[in-house]
Structures are given as structure tokens and as C-alpha cells.
Amino acid sequence: MKAARLFHFRGLVHTRIQCRGNSILSQEPSGPKMKTKIPGPKSKQFMDDLEKTQNPLSTIFVLDVDKSIGNYAVDVDGNVMLDVYEQIASLPLGYNHPAIQKVFQDSKNLSQLVNRPALGVHPTPQFIKQIDQTLLPVAPKGLEYIQPMMCGSCSNENAFKAICIWHANKQRNGKAFTEEELKSSMVNKPPGSPSVSLMSFEGAFHGRTFGALSCTHSKAIHKIDIPSFDWPIAPFPRYKYPLEENDRENKKEDERCLARIEELFHEYKSKKNPVVGVIIEPIQSEGGDFHGSATFFQRLQKLTKQNSAALLIDEVQTGLGATGKFWAHEHFNLPEAPDIVTFSKKFQTGGYFAKKEFQPKQPYRIFNTWMGEPAKMLVLDAILKTVKQENLVENTRKTGEVLLNGLKDISKQYSKLILNTRGLGTFCSFDMPNASVRDKFIGEMRNAGIQMGPCGDVAVRFRPALIFADKHAHIVHDKMNEVLKKL
Ligand SMILES: Cc1ncc(COP(=O)(O)O)c(C=O)c1O
User: Could you tell me if 397 and 382 lie in one domain?
Assistant: First the structure.
């Protein structure tokens, strides 16, 4: 670890470190430090300002992004919180990491930071190189086609289209479109707009845009008032914990879900709305952190293939290391690669990896103005290099064990409040008896200096950065003990 020089960054003195070892941790405060309850008076004032033009009801506090550092988020009231939620699971290196700051300080990057080309028509040599040297090396094995996009929802939307195009191309044996297909597509009628469906899962979350929303089933508030496709919704396993004591019941649960999936393939085929793709999260995240076994995923892949459908694994929340493997679906030892894997969040840019056959043959079918973001690719490159140099995926696997073991110990002591502790890597969670206790607990934890997030009806989730270390896990455990004592 080598301090290069000191520089001022809007009021805060940071030590710029030439990235070696887990350097950012040495710049962090020693622990949370709270001055006010959350939201504090300054946050509230900003929220009032925001209300003039926006709905501020989801705002928790207003972030002081200049002062936030490493695993610590600082708000505008000067409260220093250990952040185990990290902007909804989207910061792999925490706040103000020197490796990312360097991207913006390097004058060679200036033109890419300044200019945002329409990459579908005018890609730059730098962007073409970034696809090859930044994204391709982390592609899930067997997926060589890369489609950059913007956010998680639009990555899923475009992956759905890629699946429909792939299916239709197979149906017409690769022949040209007919005049009837072209004409009918313009008025949303078959055969040009065919009746085909995508299977998704109860409790799933794949985004809030129009098509993705038909596959999202986590909360009614996301869906209410919006028309949806008639697409099949299958059960996703709901296991009993601890897993090692409930093997028989959980195997039965897999069987129940798989039987229904098989039925739905048949039902939708006979309704003349055949399933052409299945979208699934490796761990249902927004819906409540529900896990499926490796056997469940292997058999789902087999069923999907038997029904000539494509398997799309949505790794928007799980991808880039949080589960202790780079891709969460690597935990499942699938006999072959899934057909498509979507990503966003920790990648800073969205997109999908796919098998070559999902590449449309004609231009403009999977297309939008930007098709990705060169500046974010530079940031991603710095992130991936740091993850590799500092062995952060392995770090996350090991720290995850410390985090989870501590949570299990706490759940023994507070067995009526902390239920079903579970996790892979630091992607950990537990349930509480009901939503109001859960929400109160999260509020009290925040006031005690731990910023964490809810998911589903009763779950609390951990989504720390990959630089989260054992010492941070211990701080979380200590604060949980303090808060639970008084809850
Ligand atoms: C699994 C999954 N898919 C898709 C999305 C949507 O991503 P975005 O909010 O970037 O549109 C999310 C967001 O939380 C997600 O968790």
C-alpha cells in the first residue's frame, strides 16, 4: 500500500493510494458515527425542495457523496453509516475508490468521458476494445455474444426481444419475412406480432418497464394499473430453514415447483401461446431473497430445453461477485451455459451475454440510441481490474462466512425475531416475524449507524460492497445485538 499524494476533494482530504491491497479501507472512519436521527434536518430540507418537482416518498436520506468513503455512506447531516446496502447492491468498490477516481483524473480518458456516441452506428475503437478486453473476459462460459445496454430493466426487455426473434427465426427456418408478417406486425397482429410467451416466477423481480413488468411479481405497487401480457407464472421454491434439517421437505418443494413448470409449458402450448423463454433470478432478490437448489436449476434448464425454450438468467442483482462466485449461477453447476445472462448494477452499465444464435441477423432489431456508455465501461474496467488484483470475489466468499455465521449466532439468541438466516457470500438475509417489526428494525439499525435494506414482505438483506471485510461484519453483529435488545 503506497500513499501517492494528498489531494482535496471538495472539503474532504483523501489520501490517494496507488491501488495495492485493500487500500481504501485505511481511509475509512473507524466505525459509524451518528449525529441525528435519519432523516436529519438537512436531509428533510432537501427532501422538501425535491418535493416541489418529484415524488420524494422513497427518499431515506440525502447522501453526501463527497464525504462518503469505502464502506461508509455519509449523509448531508454528517451522519456516518456503515453501508451494507450500497445503493441497492450497485457499488462493488464502495464510495470514492481511488481506482475509479483515477479514471476521471486520467486525461487520456477525457474524450470518452465527454462524448457519448450513438454506439450502434458510430462505435469508437476504444469501445470495441472495451467490449473485447473488459466484458468478454468476464462472460459466463459459453456465452460469446455481448449486447451492452443501459439499466437492468432495459437489458431484460432487449433479452426478451432477442429470445422472440430467435424463436421466430427457427419457426421460419431462417427464411425472409413474408409480406403478411411485415404488414401484420405494423398493426400488432399475428403472424408478424405472434402470440408467444415468457415464463417467470412468483415473487420475481425483473424491472419496472412495460415488458419486464409482465415478469415482475414481487409487489403490487410496481404493477397496479399497468396492462400485462398473459404469460405463465410458475412457483419458485420456498424452502424451510435450516436447509440441513429440512432436506426432505425442500426436495418435495423442488418437485412441486418443477411439476407446475412442466404443466405450464403444456398449458400455454395448448392455449396457442407457447413459452419461448424462461426468465429467472439465481436468487430471488427484491422479492425476498429466496434461494433455489442446484438441482432445481439443473432440472429447470433441462425442462426448458425439452420445450425448445431459452433460459434467461437475470444476474442484475447477483452478478459480479457478491455471492462468492463471479456469477451466482456458477453455484448450480449447470450442464451447459444458460442461453442468456443479463447484468447491470455493479457493472455500472447494463447488457447481456448470450449464445451466438441469439444475435439477430438484421440491423436495428436490438438497438437504441446509446447501446451502452463508454464512460461507464472505463469505470467497469477499473472495477474489474481491482476485483482481480485484490481477489475480491474470494474475499467476499470468506467474509460472507463471517457475516452469516454471526447472523446465525444472533438468530439463536433472538430466535423469535431473526428467522431463516441464509446467504451465499455476503449476499445474506434473514426474515423477521412481520413487516412492521422488520421496518422498525431497519429504521433502528440506521439510527444506530448501519444502512441496510428490506426485501419482500419480511426479509432484511445485506448487499455490501466487495471490499466489505470481517471487521465490518463484526460491527454489524454488535449493532444488531444492541438494537435487538431494545426492539
Ligand atoms: C434481478 C433484477 N433484475 C432487474 C432489475 C431492474 O434493474 P434496474 O433497476 O436497473 O432497471 C433489478 C433491480 O433491482 C433486479 O434486482
Answer: no
Percent of the chain with pLDDT over 90: 95
Q: What distance in Å separates the CA atoms of residue 11 and residue 29, rounded to the nearest whole number? A: 16
Q: pLDDT by residue (tens digit) across 112-167? A: 999 999 999 999 999 999 999 999 999 999 999 999 999 999 999 999 999 999 99
Give the nearest ligand 1 atom to 212 CA.
Answer: 4
How many domains does the chain divide into? 3
Domain boundary among the residues 65, 83, 101 is at: 83
Which one of 87, 90, 154, 206 would you pick to mutate in the ligand 1 pocket, going by the greatest count of ligand atoms within 8 A of its CB?
Answer: 206
Q: Bridge partners of 343?
A: 351
Show the ligand 1 pocket: residues with CB < 6 angstroms: 151-153, 156, 205-207, 281, 285-286, 314, 316-317, 344
- Chain position carrying cell 435450516: 242
- What is the per-residue burial (b if ≥16 Cβ within 10 Å, else e) of 416-441? ebbbbbbbbbbbbbbbbeeeeebeeb
For residue 70, the CA-to-ligand 1 centroid distance in Å is 23
pLDDT in the model for residue 7: 33
Assess if residue 101 is contained within a domain: no
pLDDT tens for 77-95 read: 999 999 999 999 999 999 9
Q: Which domain holds residue 40?
A: 1-83
pLDDT surpassing 80 at residue 11: no
Distance CA 408, CA 420 (A): 9
Residue 89 belongs to a domain: no
The pLDDT score that the predictor gives to residue 23 is: 82
Active site residues: 205, 314, 345, 369
Q: Specify whether 255 is located in the same domain as 355.
A: yes
The SS3 assignment for 311 reads: strand
How far does the centroid of ligand 1 lie from the alpha carbon of residue 279, in Å? 13
Q: Which of 215, 218, 279, 317 to mutate to test the pocket of ligand 1 (most atoms within 8 A of CB)?
A: 317
